[in-house]
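In response to the reviewer comment on reproducibility (Comment 2.3), we provide here a single inverse folding case reported in full, input and output, so that an independent group could reproduce the run without further information from us. The structure tokens appear first.
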């Protein structure tokens, strides 16, 4: 295949992935809309209840119609998850094709468009991979809406045609640095979503909201959400530390002959590290849990995504400007990438 054919395949694959994410989101929205009419089973699951993905037991009721409604709801949940898995696979094809479209072939993160495609892929992949371990069915609509929105932003505003890597990016340390940074970004993003849902659930519980119907009722207990958020952050933090404090400085020294340049992106990456270090330190030493920890986690994810995208638009001095879109002056052909 020619480079042009690979680039076209990448554009078509990301369009297909976007469509699949949208269909998966619709399936989960139908699922959760149907759940509003289905009460939760009290206590442990029994012969009069059905477990939907994520470990939530639904009462089937005394009549066949109620049982059929519950089974149909569970079917939409499974369908949404399977379509999400397919979307992640197609998303991976898009990234692979993007790398193959360059001459010479390279890793698919030479600009903000490619960074964003990779970041959303890791968020979706981690969701799929951790779905059963952490029973993440309750996270489905939020994750899919987030991934779909960021993909649309990438395609509409961040798109850049395939180009060779700049000299600073032509290093195997780039691969190690960016892979670890994006994995941590995915984990922190899922942790941030969980922390936000914890605040919603805790407020509903404190306010005596209805406990049997609606999306909030299907969320796990606040303490489960809090524990899940902690585990996700505890996984992401050492990976982020490796990216920011080890591989990043090594790559910077190789590219610019200095381990630290006070570049805005470096500074904000360190700020993000400090916030998450404070989050984990407060939990383990001061016993911070619940609301305070969730708010600090949201501050962390805000600094993370501002560094990921915002620095490229608001900073004119960053040596990481090659990761933005301003360097590309070619007007791309959009005929094959609309969705």
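Designed residues, in position order:
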């Amino acid at each position: 295949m020619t480079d042009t054919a690979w680039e076209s395949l990448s554009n078509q694959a990301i369009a297909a992935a976007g469509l699949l994410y949208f269909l998966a989101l619709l399936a989960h929205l139908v699922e959760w809309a149907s759940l509003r009419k289905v009460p939760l089973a009290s206590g442990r699951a029994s012969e009069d209840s059905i477990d939907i993905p994520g470990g939530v037991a639904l009462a089937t009721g005394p009549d066949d119609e109620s049982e059929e409604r519950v089974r149909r709801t569970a079917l939409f949940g499974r369908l949404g998850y399977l379509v999400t898995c397919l979307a992640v696979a197609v998303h991976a094809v898009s990234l692979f094709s993007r790398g193959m479209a360059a001459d010479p072939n390279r890793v698919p993160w030479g600009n903000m468009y490619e960074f964003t495609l990779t970041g959303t892929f890791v968020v979706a992949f981690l969701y799929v991979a951790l779905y059963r371990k952490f029973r993440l069915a309750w996270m489905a609509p939020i994750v899919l809406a987030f991934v779909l929105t960021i993909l649309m932003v990438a395609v509409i505003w961040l798109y850049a045609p395939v180009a060779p890597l700049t000299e600073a990016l032509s290093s195997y340390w780039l691969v190690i640095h960016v892979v670890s940074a994006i994995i941590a970004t995915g984990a922190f993003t899922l942790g941030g979503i969980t922390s936000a849902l914890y605040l919603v659930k805790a407020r509903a519980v404190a306010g005596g909201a209805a406990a049997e119907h609606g999306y909030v009722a299907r969320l796990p207990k606040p303490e489960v959400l809090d524990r899940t958020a902690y585990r996700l952050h505890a996984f992401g933090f050492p990976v982020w530390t490796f990216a920011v404090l080890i591989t990043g400085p090594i790559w910077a020294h190789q590219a610019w002959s200095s381990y630290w340049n006070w570049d805005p992106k470096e500074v904000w990456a360190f700020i993000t590290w400090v916030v998450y270090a404070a989050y984990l330190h407060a939990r383990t030493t001061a016993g911070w849990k619940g609301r305070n920890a969730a708010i600090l986690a949201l501050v962390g994810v805000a600094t993370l995504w501002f560094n990921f995208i915002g620095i490229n638009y608001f900073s004119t001095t960053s040596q990481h400007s090659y990761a933005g879109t301003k360097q590309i002056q070619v007007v791309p052909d959009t005929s094959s990438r609309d969705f």
